[in-house]
Amino acid sequence: MTKRNYATVNPCVMCQPMGSALAFKGIENTMVLYHGSQGCSTYMRLHLSHHFREPVEIASSSLNEKEAVYGGTENLKKGLKNVIKRYNPKVIGVATTCLTETIGDDVPAIIKEFKEEEGIGDDPEKDIIIIPVSTPSYGESHVSGYIKALDAVVRKFSEKSGEEEFLKIPNGKLNLIPVESFSPADVREIKEILEFMAGDYIFLPDISDTFDAPLREKLPKIAVGGTPLSEIADMPNSRASIGLGVVSTNLAVKYLEDYHGVPGHNVPIPIGLLNTDLFFTELVRTLGCPIPDKYQNERGRLLDAMVDVHKYLYGVKAAVYGDPDSVFSLTTFMLELGMNPVLVSTGSKNRDFEKRIKQIFEEIRPELEPVVLDGIDFDTLNDAVSECGPEILIGNSKGRYIAKARDIPLVRVGLPIHDRVGAQRILTVGYRGALELLDRITNTILEATDTFTAPVQVEPAAYAGEGAKDERVEGSR
Ligand code: SF4
């Protein structure tokens, strides 16, 4: 690949504070405030609302030149006051941005001071809970912002219990915490599986309604839905936690295990056959109940479909890019389908990414030698695509320029998807999600190669008059 002497061109990740918003927006009655300049919150609101097609409210402490020199304490306090007055939230997530991290504002100290001045305590029953997260964008990406915010939320709601020598009252529930943002359709699917498995569960963060709300006559100030606060406070009482994702470290799962003794198990995001099997195996192990017939049948249908499309997908060279754990699970699925993921990449910097990806190739198709890249931008991805020559791209809509310039079809998965509608309804998890993804990938390839999808039955001789032949035209793949 071309060697460069400049930093980043078209990043393949989003801002770290945006990740925190994805997490906070899945929590009941929560408002997000970015401590920084107004542009940060405007950019992220637009980015998210173009993807989910929902209004996304994010407040800003709105710093300008003066505060950049003298500090943003007063602006943050003013911002918090305004948010409380206008939105009346139960929780405010305060995420820092590049500017406020660079000038060194001590946000936890400012919040402490603000709470003392306003007489706000720490009782979730009566008080507004303010949760600071340090998310300078030059440090990491939206993936780490998301993980950090969830960790901060779980810690905050367990804090009081800790101080009072928390008396455990086992609730028999199962905590489910993904390391990356799922689509609302994905969250709904996981919740449905858990309901079917007769398990009492807590899913954090639940964006199934907040980012995919029904049309209402009156727009609520804060989107309805999200994980109830009482359930978050109850997470230390759960029987176990399942972290969805194995490449990034799930800090919330780790915290609950280390400080509250809740056993944590991380499984890959359940995309594809193997990963969904692993998810169900973990559920069976934890809940002690069998897999319902409904899902046995869905698994059977997926297997049937995999056999059906094998002739179209076998050996197809693919390039996949996106968030580390989604890419890991998508790659596993492509290997199961007989595809050849020649280029596997993520924009996030993750030291375990290459090791994990190579491991899964070793287990499923050791003869393949993919190019594996982390911390890339789209410029690097473009070069890598040119070298690896994939026949299909799988990733978010920001890869469309590469797809268009090189005339390679693109299957849109992940975040953001700005040039198509329905991102919030894209289902990839579970057997049903795998089936839908498989259809999308196969049909995209069929459309691009103009291959017949099935043998074409020509009119049988008996109906076509004398001399007519009964012949079949086979597809080229
Ligand atoms: S990169 Fe930094 S300054 Fe730019 S929008 Fe993100 S947080 Fe704000």
Domains counted in the coordinates: how many? Answer: 3
Q: How many H/I helical runs?
A: 17
Overall average residue pLDDT:
92
Radius of gyration equals: 24 Å
Tertiary shape:
globular
CATH topology of the largest domain: Rossmann fold
CATH superfamily of the largest domain: Nitrogenase molybdenum iron protein domain
* Strand arrangement, major sheet: 11-10-9-12-13
Major sheet: 5 strands, parallel
Find the count of extended strands (DSSP E, 2+ residues). Answer: 15
CATH architecture of the largest domain, by name, is 3-Layer(aba) Sandwich
CATH class of the largest domain: Alpha Beta
Please bin the fraction of helical residues.
Answer: 40-55%
> Which ligands accompany this protein?
iron/sulfur cluster
Distance between the termini: 32 Å
Could you say which structural class the secondary elements and strand pairing correspond to? Answer: alpha/beta
What oligomeric state do these chains adopt? single chain
How much of the residues is beta strand, in percent? 5-15%
Contiguous low-pLDDT stretches (5 residues minimum) are 467-477
